[in-house]
From TrEMBL:
Signal peptide: none annotated. Belongs to the bacterial solute-binding protein 3 family. Its main location: other. Residues 53-279 form the Solute-binding protein family 3/N-terminal domain. The keyword NAD does not apply. This is ABC transporter substrate-binding protein. It is found in: Cell envelope. The lineage of its organism: Bacteria, Bacillati, Actinomycetota, Actinomycetes, Mycobacteriales. It comes from the Bacteria. GO terms for cellular component: cell envelope.
Length: 295
């Protein structure tokens, strides 16, 4: 980043943050605002086109997907990507901060147009929503540097920090804890936090033995923790991440078509590279992990 995190105070135990506040965008960042594409504009639902803007729900901090800079602006690679999608649609982007667990219901309720908050595209979520996938990543555990190795597959009796209701909690740590109990071993003590930075801080200051999080989140926290934490084990459970849209909607097709324009122009790759994300990129627009057939 262009500046340091406030948080090395956290590392010294003076406050509770690791990635909670950044001074701004990465060095060399520039806004990428492609021109509107008439074919994509024709796919935009009429009520959104008339409004002239499209709204997204997001839940910072979840750096580098989304987080707040020192002025309180919500930034991150997912915000840049959503803004570029809106630009291709000929629309302004309206960012709304919401509780993570309330974003999908808000899409169903029609109070926001789509969700952009580090959603893992899972079979369960696909029952009610479509996902326009923009990145493949997995789960990566971390531990304090210099401590005995923590094995993510043998963590019975340890304390593991997670962000509440994320896949790291629901699909990784809680099932592993249940397996421990089924074998007659001590369960994992799960520390569930509202935000990813709070979970990372719990590891840095020693409240937790390990952190389970999406691999980009873990990498971001490690980079900003001044060597206090490091990865342990390999990345596993690789999965697609994407924007959530109403199931079977015209908006799904419009967002996917805008993504294809960004991929074809190279703007998608440039947006991700500005955040040092070069692995796990998609090479075509995907809806629920299937090639989008929308043009």
């Amino acid at each position: 980043m262009a500046g340091a995190v406030t948080a090395l105070a956290c590392v010294l135990g003076l406050s509770a943050c690791v990635t909670n506040e950044e001074t701004g965008h990465p060095a060399g960042w520039e806004e990428i605002a492609p021109p509107a594409d008439p074919q994509v504009q024709a796919l935009v639902p009429e009520e959104i086109a008339v409004r002239g803007s499209i709204s997204i729900g997001t839940n910072p901090p979840f750096a580098p997907f989304e987080f707040k800079d020192s002025q309180g602006n919500i930034i991150g690679f997912e915000m840049d990507l959503a803004a570029a999608v809106a630009s291709v649609m000929g629309l302004d982007l309206e960012i709304r901060q919401q509780d993570f667990a309330m974003i999908l219901p808000a899409i169903n309720g029609g109070t926001i147009d789509f969700g952009a908050t580090g959603f893992t595209d899972t079979e369960e979520r696909r029952q009610g929503f479509d996902f326009i996938d923009h990145l493949y990543a997995g789960i990566q555990w971390a531990q304090q540097s210099g401590k005995p190795p923590v094995d993510p597959d043998n963590a019975c009796g340890l304390t593991v920090a997670v962000q509440r209701t994320t896949v790291a909690e629901t699909d990784d740590v809680r099932p592993k804890s249940a397996e421990c109990e089924a074998r007659g071993e001590k369960p994992i003590e799960i520390l569930s936090y509202e935000t990813a930075d709070q979970a990372a801080t719990a590891l840095v200051v020693g409240r937790a033995d390990a952190l389970s999080a999406d691999s980009p989140i873990t990498a971001w926290a490690i980079e900003r923790a001044d060597g206090k934490i490091t990865t342990t084990g390999d990345v596993f459970a690789a999965a697609p991440y994407g924007f959530a849209t109403p199931k079977g909607s015209q908006l799904t097709d419009a967002v996917a078509a805008a993504m294809q324009v960004l991929i074809d122009s190279g703007d998608y790759e440039r947006i991700m590279a500005q955040w040092n994300i070069t692995d796990g990129l998609v090479d075509q627009a995907l809806i629920n992990e299937e090639p989008a057939d929308i043009r």
